[in-house]
């Protein structure tokens, strides 16, 4: 098995994993986000033995009136979960934005993934809520870089 590689992706390359991981148990199957093509949007993934096993989208979007980066569409293939792939991708994105001078990354995290974000330096902020698209419980999470 080769070492996992963090790579830049097109928005379209994120769609199969978004569908398989983020939309499998939801009433919506929509995987295209309007922010995918915003200026400054970056899509990162992890390839393992040539296969795309994780994706993420990083969108310049304020948080509470401060410049920030929103993490969206974080998805790791079920077969690759629990192996550090998601953490590798998360760290690569945060390091990229810290080097660019950003100080805040935030996301709307599913409660089912909340422990992952907390283990990786994020803090839950505010009360939980039900996401309209997925109908699943979420929390806002923030990581200061």
Describe the fold and architecture:
By secondary structure, this protein is α+β, with helices and mostly antiparallel strands. It has a domain at 5-105: Gcn5-related N-acetyltransferase (GNAT) (Aminopeptidase, 3-Layer(aba) Sandwich), CATH 3.40.630.30. The protein contains three helices and seven strands; from the N terminus they run E-H-E-E-E-H-E-H-E-E. The protein has a seven-stranded mixed beta sheet, with helices on both faces. It is globular. The termini are far apart.
- How many alpha or pi helices? 3
CATH topology title of the domain at 5-105: Aminopeptidase
Which stretches are low in confidence, meaning pLDDT under 50 for 5 or more residues running?
none
Order of helices and strands: EHEEEHEHEE
Strand numbers in spatial order across the main sheet: 1-2-3-4-5-7-6
Q: Pairing-aware structural class of the strands and helices?
A: alpha+beta
Query: How would you name the CATH homologous superfamily of the domain at 5-105?
Result: Gcn5-related N-acetyltransferase (GNAT)
Which descriptors would you attach to this protein?
alpha+beta, 145 residues, Aminopeptidase, single chain
């Amino acid at each position: 098995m080769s070492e996992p590689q963090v790579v830049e992706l097109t928005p379209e390359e994120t769609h199969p994993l978004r569908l398989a991981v983020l939309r499998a148990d939801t009433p919506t199957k929509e995987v295209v986000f309007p922010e995918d093509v915003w200026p400054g949007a970056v899509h990162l993934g992890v390839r393992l033995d040539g296969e795309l096993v994780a994706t993420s989208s990083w969108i310049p979007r304020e948080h509470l009136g401060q410049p920030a980066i929103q993490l969206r569409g974080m998805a790791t293939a079920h077969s690759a979960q629990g192996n550090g792939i998601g953490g590798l991708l998360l760290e690569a994105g945060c390091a990229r934005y810290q080097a660019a001078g950003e100080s805040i990354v935030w996301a709307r995290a599913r409660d089912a993934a909340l422990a992952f974000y907390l283990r990786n330096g994020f803090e839950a902020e505010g009360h939980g809520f039900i996401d309209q698209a997925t109908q699943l419980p979420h929390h806002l999470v923030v990581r200061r870089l």
